[in-house]
Amino acid sequence: MSLLDHPDAKAFILHWGEMGTQWGVNRSVSQVHALLYLSDHPIPADDIVDQLGLARSNVSTALKELQGYGIVRRVHVEGDRRDHFVAETDLWDMLLRIAAERKRREIDPTIALLSELATRLARDESAPPHVRERVTRMYEFISTLGNWYEQVRSLPKPTLVTLMKLGGRVARFVAPGRAKSKQD
To answer: From residue 157, how far is each of 89, 90, 151, 153, 154 by CA, in Å?
Structure first.
């Protein structure tokens, strides 16, 4: 029996595919991830093809992408020569791995470019002052965000959970007396 035979599992897999496209991830990559995430056992690529009705090449590409993010891994099943695949089911580990890979692919190159531009603009007297100022501010902002991410990702999971549950109330500890929110 396929997971897609259950209407709620099917709804999850289809929605995950749609949600993935909103985040810039290919629909089939997201659907393969959803299927593996819901599965209680490793699945070979051929079964993923059959269950999702995707081309073998799409499934192969999706599996490589998901392994690149570190949220799917190849496993061997005794007595079966095929490669099987399982998804990370720890939601915090999955979130942190996705965030780390997106930072590596998207944020780090941006920081490098902005650093280079800010350095060049600082020496370029012909550059319009507002361009120099805005690029430098963007570099400082994105760098600070990157540094914050590196600090937060090294925190233990229980601390991350506590921070998430605190939400905006964490500001009370940073600026006591000034951090009034709509929740208070």
So the answer is: 15, 11, 13, 9, 9
